[in-house]
Write a structure and sequence with these properties.
The protein is mostly helical and 137 residues long. It has seven helices and no strands.
Length: 137
């Protein structure tokens, strides 16, 4: 593992998902820590820090993919990240509607539930879901 790449990935991961989430994730036990390092290095550094797409676009893609895979826990987290990356609540809604049609209504129903939970958590944190956030390449 490349420690510099892990550090860069952790920085990006914190900007998108929040420092509290990353601190919790990295407080993994000996069994899970290698996975967290792998995710930080490859997902969050090697992919998220590539110049080809901005973070807003990457977030939109992740919301659609996680809906298609019917992974509501990860979807909820990435919806919060999408808001941090500048997507509006209405844009998330449109992504979820389109994926419901192409990926199946049951996945769409779970995605809308995850989105409601994500928005509720953001509101609890005194963040405005429609305000958006950083938009970095």
């Amino acid at each position: 593992m490349n420690k510099d790449a892990i550090k860069a990935g952790l920085h990006t991961r914190s900007q998108v998902l929040g420092a509290a989430h990353v601190a919790t994730s990295m407080n993994a036990d000996d069994f899970s820590k290698p996975l967290e390092e792998l995710v930080s290095e490859y997902c969050w550094h090697e992919i998220w820090n590539r110049p080809g797409l901005d973070r807003r676009t990457r977030s939109a893609i992740n919301v659609a993919m996680l809906t298609a895979l019917n992974r509501p826990q990860q979807l909820k987290l990435h919806i919060q990240g999408a808001i941090n990356n500048g997507l509006s609540k209405q844009e998330v809604q449109e992504i979820l509607l389109q994926t419901a049609v192409y990926c199946g209504v049951p996945a769409g129903m779970d995605a809308f539930k995850a989105a409601r939970l994500a928005f509720a958590e953001l509101e609890t944190q005194s963040l405005e879901p429609s305000a958006g956030g950083a938009d970095h390449a």
